[in-house]
Design brief:
Helix content is 39%, strand content 23%. Helix 3 (60-68) links the parallel strand 3 (48-52) and strand 4 (75-80). By secondary structure, the protein is an alpha/beta fold.
Length: 231
């Protein structure tokens, strides 16, 4: 059974999901307030954390902020439907993906499965390190260095960078990047991939000489540039 932590103040939802996820070979532990949820997430080994934004004691965004100081565990944020600001803030703070409430449990399972596929390291493709200029990515250990320094990435950011490095110099659509980094189709008005790209830019920084690494191509997507390359 894959261990999953739910941090949500809705006890009824917790019981419902515990039963539903068990049939999907996912073992759910539920915690109903922010401080206890943060402590549980840091003290135990979970494959993924499902974190609600609205929590007593400490908001979900504050829980995520504190969690990211010490842990890279994948996080799926639960946000109120239509709350674009919470979604963007959650992604900027290091959430891997989000799911608006109310949701169908089958959709939750699909999102969890997508996250787990990305973060378990299982792959049918080559696992050799990928190197471009000052960036080196190791698929097996899911680790990245830039300029010889370790860079801590979320699961989505890692897969996004892996996709970019394998197709450096080529324009990749937002739809293809969403599928590669989040394991799901891009929905209408979905800005998740743009936030992940922004986070990746910030963490890697520009090349020497202040040349940007990742350039947005209006109406087309993004391109990861080689040093001195123009799109």
């Amino acid at each position: 059974m894959v261990p999953v932590l739910l941090i949500d103040d809705d006890a009824e939802l917790g019981k419902l999901l515990e039963e539903y996820l068990q049939s999907e070979q996912l073992h759910l532990d539920a915690v109903y307030d922010g401080p206890a949820g943060l402590q549980k997430a840091l003290s135990s080994q979970y494959a993924v954390v499902v974190l609600d934004v609205m929590l007593p004691g400490m908001s979900g965004l504050d829980v995520l902020k504190q969690l990211r100081l010490k842990s890279a565990v994948p996080v799926l944020m639960l946000t109120a439907r239509g709350s674009e600001l919470d979604r963007i803030l959650g992604l900027e703070l290091g959430a891997d993906d989000y799911l608006p409430k109310p949701f169908n449990p089958r959709e939750l399972v699909a999102r969890l499965r997508a996250i787990l596929r990305r973060t378990t390291g299982a792959s049918n493709g080559p696992s050799a390190p990928v190197h471009l200029a000052d960036v080196e990515l190791h698929p097996e250990s899911r680790s990245v260095t830039c300029g010889g320094e370790s860079v801590v990435l979320t699961g989505a950011e890692f897969d996004l960078l892996h996709t970019f490095l394998r197709s450096a110099g080529k324009i990749i659509s937002r739809e293809d990047l969403t599928q590669a980094a989040l394991g799901r189709p891009m929905s209408a008005m979905d800005r998740s991939i743009d936030v992940h790209v922004s986070n990746l830019r910030r963490k890697l920084g520009p090349y020497e000489g202040d040349q940007e690494r990742i350039k947005a191509i209006r109406g087309s997507g993004y391109v990861y540039l080689r040093p001195g390359e123009q799109p």
